[in-house]
Amino acid sequence: MNDTGPSALLFLKKFGILLVLLSLILFFALTTQAFFTVTNLFNIARQVSMLGIAAVGMTFVMITGGIDLSVGSLLSIINVIGAFSMVKFGVHPVLAVAICLACACLLGLLNGAIVTDINIPPLIATLGTMTIIRGLSYIITGGLPIYGFPDNFSVIGQGYLWVIPIPVVIMFVIVALGSFILNSTFFGRLFYAIGGNEEATRLSGANIRGLKYLVYALSGFTAGIAGVILLSRVNSGQPIAGSGFELDVVTAVVLGGVSISGGEGSLSGAFTGVLIMGVLSNGLIIMNVGEYYQLVIKGTVLLCAVGFDRMQRNADRPGAKLSPKNAQKAV
Question: Does pTM surpass 0.85?
Fold first, then answer.
C-alpha cells in the first residue's frame, strides 16, 4: 500500500510551520530592501517579545483544553496598575513591578476559579473577564493615559544586555522555563493528559482543579510580564494598550500547532508561530500595507490555522485524543 499520503501529512505536522516561517522570510527579503537587515531583525525580536512571553501561558492553557481571551485586557490593566502606583502613589519601580505581577496572577486565578468551580466554559468565562477587566482599566484612568515614570523604569522595555534588547532576553528566559515545565516535569505531562482526556486523568487521581488554577495563573503571570514590558517601553499607562492582543496570541499559538481541542502542541511550535506573526506584521508594515488589511490577513491566518488543526484531527484515527502517551505516562 502506498503510504505517501500519511508520510506527507506527518512531514507537514513536523516541519510545515517552519517551512512557512522560512518562506515568509525569503519572500520579504526578496521583495523589500529594509527587511533582511540586522537592525530590522532585532526590531522584529523586540516587537515579538511581549507576544512570545504571553504565548507561553496561553500554550499551557490551550494544551489543557482551555483558552484565555482575557490576556489583552489583563495586559492593559497591568499597564494601568503599574502606571497608577508609580505616578499617583510614588511606589518604587521594583515594588510596582511586584504589585503588577501579583495582580496578574490573582486575575489569572480568578479565571481558573470561574472555569473550574463555577464550571463556565473557558471561552465564555474569559470573554466575560476580558470585558470586565477592560472596563475597569477605563474606570481607573478615565480613559486617559498616565505619564511621568522614574527614568530607570524604562530600562526594562528599552534597555540592552550587551547588544540584545532586554525584552528579548526576558522572552527567551520565559520560553526556556516554559519548555522545561512542559517537557521535563510531572506538571507538564499532566497538562497534556488533561487536554487528552480529562476524565481519565481525574480518575487516575490527578488534582484537576489545582492544575487548572495553575495554568490560568501562569497565563495571567506571563501576560503580566508582557504588560510591564509594554509599560516600560512606551512610558505611558494606557487602558487601550492590549486591545486585540489576545487575537495575536491565540493566532500565534494555534498557528504553531497547539490544538484548540487540547492535548497536543509544543512551546517550540508556539514560538515558531510567534515568529511568523512577527515577521508577517513587520513585512506588511515595510510594504506599506494598511492596518485594516493587516487585520483581515491576521484573521485569515487564524481561520486557516484552526481549519488545518481540524482537518488533521479528522485524519487521525478515532480515539487518538485519548493518547496513551499523555494519559498513562502522566501517572
Answer: yes
